[in-house]
Amino acid sequence: MLALLHHFTTAMFKTPSLQVFVVACLAACAAASAAEPKLQHPLTTAPLDGDMPGRGWGSVPIQEATWFEMGYSLNITFGNPPQQVPVYLDISSPDSWVTPEALPDRHRVCETAPTFNTSASSTFLATSTFARFHFDWLWGQGNLSYDTVSFGSLSVQHQAFAIPDYISSDAWGFNACPMAGIIGLAPFSSRTERDDFGKPSPLVSMALQKALSKNLFALRLHGPRAELSFGRTNPGLYRDGFIAEAPLTRHRSRIWDGGWQTTASHLRLEAWDADNSFVADLGNVPATFSTRSPQIHLPKAVYDSVYAAAGFEQLPGWLMPPTVDCARRFDMPNVTIALGDGMESLTLTAFEYTMVWPLADPGPPQCACLFTTSSGFDWSGEIILGWAFVRAFYVVFDLDEKMIRFATLS
């Protein structure tokens, strides 16, 4: 199993820092929101007059941390009549793809997942335009296609996505994964030479088609009530008002250009022992949100300070991440990251920035550190806020107002 984890981790992302941490086989830990409301801006808590599901808004449940804690999946439909397909949620890229039924098994990665029968859809449009995609541990190529994509009762017409004729992965042994594609919800197309279709995400398509009451989506990743909603928020999934909001920015990213991004001004660690508390200046670096990985990527100097102050240790063992005795989490420091102009602060407890790590040997349960950095690559110009950060809050990604807002989970 460890050999499998090593192979999987090495290939998981084409970014060096994600090779530091093994995400496969993590066990989910309880997450608790520790932030206290500071700003009270009213969220949209009800649809506009006359709105009905599918007419201005819609929602779909999210499966929490499926398939070895790799990410978050949801069931959406493609085509007419609609065919339900499980896909992974990706807020870092605008690109989407789905495995066709006609793809030979030898060219698939997730052999057991349902597929999309393109010939059974009356609205499917194939093109000869070459398309390639790259989702961290797997990649593929095929042709750009168009069809109706539906999120619950909300549909977007003529949505662009790739139909691959080949999918490959460095992660051998994972053919039983329960997904058949990726749905990208980033607001922009990439400006880099990385794989990119140059086509709008479903969110942008909905905005162009005037399908939504408000051009936003809201995300709750935590717990059995996890949900993705478009056009409005769900008042049953959060409490009070916003606790923070940060402007959407578009600094060039080395990792996921075009994703949901803001800036981060500083990080504060609040320990019981004042000698271990500190504030680190992040210099308003770009901060990109991601649902691909749980990790929160920090500049090395900041990461080293958090590592030491929180009391993480590197236990012996192949590819073991830094860990701490899980029983210590009640006494571990809070970590606050200030976004935007520095006045919008979001706090994580140790229950949110660690995750239970299964050990082969008996002993006290160990919790892995979800903060990380990179060796051999300069991360000082950018940080990544993975789903360990995103799932600690109810997050609203607002395309109209170019804002990212955060509320406390209910």
TrEMBL record:
Keywords: Disulfide bond, Signal. CDD domains: pepsin_like. It comes from the Eukaryota. Residues 1-34 form the signal peptide. One of its GO terms (biological process) is proteolysis. GO terms for molecular function: aspartic-type endopeptidase activity. The keyword Kinase does not apply. Disulfide bonds join C326-C367. Residues 72-407 form the Peptidase A1 domain. Gene3D superfamilies: Acid Proteases. InterPro entries: Aspartic_peptidase_A1 (IPR001461), Pepsin-like_dom (IPR034164), PEPTIDASE_A1 (IPR033121), Peptidase_aspartic_dom_sf (IPR021109). Pfam families: Asp. The keyword ATP-binding does not apply. Belongs to the peptidase A1 family. This is Aspartic peptidase domain-containing protein. It comes from Immersiella caudata.
